[in-house]
Amino acid sequence: MKIQALRCWLSALAVTAVSAVAPAYAADITFKNVELIVPYGAGGGSTIHARLLAPALEQALPGQPSILIRNVPGAGSVVGINEFHREAKPDGMTIASLGTGTFFQYLLQDKAVEYPLPELRPFLTSPFGLVVYARKDLGLSGDPVADVKKLVTMQPVYGGANATSSDLPALLAIDLLGIKARYLFGLSNAEAQSGFDRGELQLNYDNMASWTNSVKPMVDEGVAVPLFTFGFENEAGEIVRDPMVPELPTFLEVYEAIHGAKLTGEAYAVWKTLFNIRVMGSKMFALPAGTPDDIYNVYADAMRKALSSERLSGDEAKAVLGPYPQTVGAQAERTLKGASVMSDAERTWLKKWLSDTHGVN
Amino acid sequence: MDPTLVDFALQAFGQIMGPHLIYLVLGVVIGLAVGILPGLGGISGMSLVLPFVYGMDQSAALAMMIGLTSVTTTSDTFPSVLMGVPGSSGSQATVVDGFPLAQRGEGARALSAAFTASLIGGVFGAILLSFAFVFARPLLLAIGFAEQMMLVILALSLVGLLTGRSMIKGLAACGIGLLVGTIGPAVSTGEFRMTQGSLYLLDGLPLLVIGLGLFAVPEILDVLRHKVAISEHGSIGKGWMQGVRDVFGNMWLVLRCSTIGALIGALPGLGGTVIDWIAYGHVIQTSKDKSQFGKGDIRGVIAPESANNAKEGGALIPTLFLGIPGSGTMALLLGGLVLIGVTPGRTLVTNHVDLVYVIIWSIAIANVLGALICVGLARPIASLTAAPFALIAPFMITMIFFAGFQTSQNWGDIIALVLLGLLGGFMKRFGWSRAALLIGFVLAPALEDSVSRTVQIYGLHVFLRPTAMIILVLTVVSVFIAWRSRSGISLGEHETGSASATQKRGQVIFSLALLAFAIFAILDTMNLRFLAYVFPISVALITAALILISLLQIARGVPSALSDTEAEYRAAGGTQASLTYYFGWFILLPLLSLLVGFFAAAPLYVATFLRVLAKKSWLVCVLGAIGVIAGLWLLGELLSLRYPVGWIMALSRPLTGG
């Protein structure tokens, strides 16, 4: 049993005796045992991310607490983050890792969601790019714009989880380019990857984490051609080419080349929000809503220190975090706002698109 | 083999037997420890070591992680054989014959046979892995969605052998299992089925909870009611060497089941959790004398145990060579590899041949070590079966709820466990095959997904795929053999007497309850989109028809359809308290937990149980309570687990820091 839970139980015994518990926030903030809730299963990317970063953060936090990672999977992260919101006190003793599902279910107003997402206080965001690619044996040349034009004339088979899962940004991008794919849903990442490898699926996307080890080898063997990346937002707020594969055009570039005009209006606003979620805010560490600034700042400073530590500068760290600059503190909070707030008009647009294209109501 | 490869192999062997042996042993010990406890498995073990892996020497870290994952399926045999509690979802089939053997006083024989079979299976998996350089890619490329569908159908056809005495009721039970397996999201549309707004059901029921509820709960209550100790003879028997001889006498069977295990572990589509049942179906199908299956046939232990250890080597093939994890443990292993700076995938074989051999040797050596340690432990642990059962039962019941709760750390696990225990008890009483329900449940998602994918991609062209057709032919042959040789596979069911024929009320009511569930499945899913309802409604219609036929058979008094073990027991003059009474003792623990939380309830429960049912002295009761609390605390600390929170804790929460 965890120490916190044991303490909880012990104090339950003394429930009548307890009169008041003084607030734990003193001038010098130190932590003993911090719990990190990861709302996905133990084998997933969020867990790996957490396991890489937590030890470095432990060292950088005052009091060098031990950070216990607890996986609370279920309902695409909703179970874990609900629990985080319900039970974590704003005292810095509990933090959570937020994932893509945390955002989509919130934005689509899933009834199960209990957490007020924009009020959570993220102190770290780890961005990660996306790449969309297709089978070369469809007759593709390797010139992205020409290839997309060709794909518009056929019906490539796309395999993924489902329309409201983390596939959503890629699905929207593919549809906005005018590609009318045949969609095969219900596949795990691994299944989609091997289905593509076998040629049963023809259109796929991947997190950039897979670029070096699974996508690039397929490109080199002549099995796949990359079409576009989602790009990356620099500090000036411009969407530039992905630092991992700068030779590939971004989605917005390809869109403009195909349609002869920039993506604008509600379609752009929705795409940008999904981009914020899937790329800029791909993984986040957050404190509960209502965490006071002094505690928040301790975490932000510690995270900054941890990121420059030796442990997080090596090749192992690069394999998990990629070449993307990590954002900490106020910048991370801005990323969360940009990814969790959507106007009613945009939401209506997105729901209509989901219903028209994928029959999701 | 390429001479340089041999060099690499020898060099890796030297590394493991030299400086890294200590890490391998450490991994093996942790793996055995988590394997022995139901509810914990490779995933918990990996979570335990991952924080320490960073910064370790690559081969040392690998030896530890592989050592750990290789042996959890060796030690999980202990609870399966000795207590009838599946130690993990991979050793459920072992229970069917292993537990009757322990009850006959042959626990030692069953264990030594299981460990020997595990050893051979594990080493076989390692050998296969070392040849996988050559065939991994072409093999995996040949198994497309169409072939996966045929594999699932082949697996399902084995249910024909596990239906028990009444084929109609067995198939209906399988149908119910398929329906229970569709609870949760419809993968193709994302719509939810039969969840009734429950957040817990959104991801479907966990397999382990189903296995514990259907198998462990009814057995424990039965033993508690009828017997003084698990082993009827009051001793654990000799038979150490007998068990080893059993394995060598069935070497051909061991090799076949190892091949099945390794292949299914490597291939996409079926998943590791059904391997033990497939091996079990295989051994029944290929045995001439089937009369002892379910009553304690040693072959029923050997087959699943050799298959589930061979699976680990097989599952590493896609994990290492393609970077595609074959299971949750493998996914975590991939994460571990990344943390020590090894990126798995196609580049692994070209860049790190040395590490691949470290892995292969680690599997082989870990399996040998694990089996030896288990054999050493078996004698003291097996003596539990000779101890008074009332003394062990409270700890087992605590363990079952502990295991159930660890699957998703939700109160829903506990509720599901109680309800499924009830279902399992009635199925046992009224002669509905629990194994068939379980297989249906395991295969439901695989069947639905693969059929829908195959229809969408291939349509009728599936019949032009040669590999798919070969598997289909195998299925037809398997069904034909099953049909011809059906006689005498009762899977341990009692013969029915006149009491079952005269007292039909309970049987009819239970059948009607199952029918109601099938109708509920139809009503609940009929308003969803086509891809979400086509599978559950088709299955529900067939299941409902089968239940109606069995109702008709019960009404007409067809002997194979009749069963009511409780009526038989009373008619034979049994005077023990009713099962309801013992079920009450079973659910006392969750009820107490509801009030004060599991951590406080468990010692209270153990003490009460020991005092009232086992009639022990207060000292023994207090010691038992202390033992439970120490065990739970230690596990919680080591693995950072949580336990169900009770009403008092929830009340006091605002006042505490937790």
Can you characterise this structure?
- The complex is a heterodimer of chains A (361) and B (658).
- Chain A is an alpha/beta fold and 361 residues long.
- Helix content of chain A is 43%, strand content 16%.
- Chain A has 14 helices and 13 strands.
- A 6-stranded mixed sheet of chain A has the order 2-1-3-12-4-13. A 3-stranded antiparallel sheet of chain A has the order 8-5-9, with helices on both faces.
- Residues 1-27 of chain A have low confidence and may be disordered.
- With 658 residues, chain B is an all-alpha fold.
- Chain B is 72% helix and 1% strand.
- Chain B is built from 29 helices and 2 strands.
- Chain B has helices at residues 3-17, 21-36, 42-53, 58-75, 77-83, 92-103, 107-142, 145-157, 167-181, 207-226, 240-249, 251-266, 275-286, 299-321, 328-339, 346-351, 353-382, 389-408, 411-430, 434-457, 466-484, 498-502, 505-525, 530-556, 565-571, 579-596, 598-612, 618-639, 647-652, and strands at residues 184-185, 192-193.
- A two-stranded antiparallel ribbon of chain B has the order 1-2.
- The radius of gyration of chain B is 24 Å and the shape is globular.
- Chain B starts with a helix and ends in a 6-residue tail after the last helix.
- At the A-B interface, helix 1, helix 2, strand 2, helix 3 and strand 7 of A face helix 3, helix 15, helix 20, helix 28 and helix 29 of B.
